[in-house]
Specification:
By secondary structure, this protein is α+β, with helices and mostly antiparallel strands. The chain has one domain. Helix content is 18%, strand content 34%. The mean pLDDT is 95. The structure holds zinc ion (2 copies).
Length: 119
């Protein structure tokens, strides 16, 4: 049994704890979260990040051309993007995944919900 419950619904689970660090930055303002997740919910978070943000690094290796298209909002492609979004996923036995995206104010809440950020 993992020591801490999974942050998604606070359920207990067997198997190793997985974790994620997320952040939303706007100028000098920063909101950060540290999530303890079960293997299933770390995969779900990874899938959301993968389909919305850019995967910029796998372990120590930068992903080629990952920054292409990262200068507009991840959701609506607006170029009014006060927010920078980050998510690092740590899955047991796998290389770390780093995601990055930019966001307009309107589309921040979707990321905020996934990342469980308090603003
Ligand atoms: Zn879970
Ligand atoms: Zn947007």
């Amino acid at each position: 049994m993992a020591l801490f419950p999974c942050v998604v619904g606070n359920h207990k689970y067997a198997g190793p704890q997985q974790s994620a660090y997320c952040a939303a930055l706007n100028g000098s303002f920063a909101a950060r979260s540290k999530l303890r997740l079960c293997p299933e919910h770390v995969e779900q978070l990874g899938q959301w990040m993968n389909s919305n943000l850019k995967l910029i690094a796998i372990g120590e290796k930068m992903v080629d051309e990952a920054w292409k298209g990262a200068d507009v909002c991840y959701s609506c492609s607006s170029s009014e993007i006060p927010w920078q979004l980050f998510c690092n996923l740590y899955r047991r036995g796998e290389p770390q995944l780093d995601f990055y995206g930019a966001s307009c104010t309107e589309h921040l809440p979707a990321f905020q919900t996934e990342a469980r950020l308090e603003l």
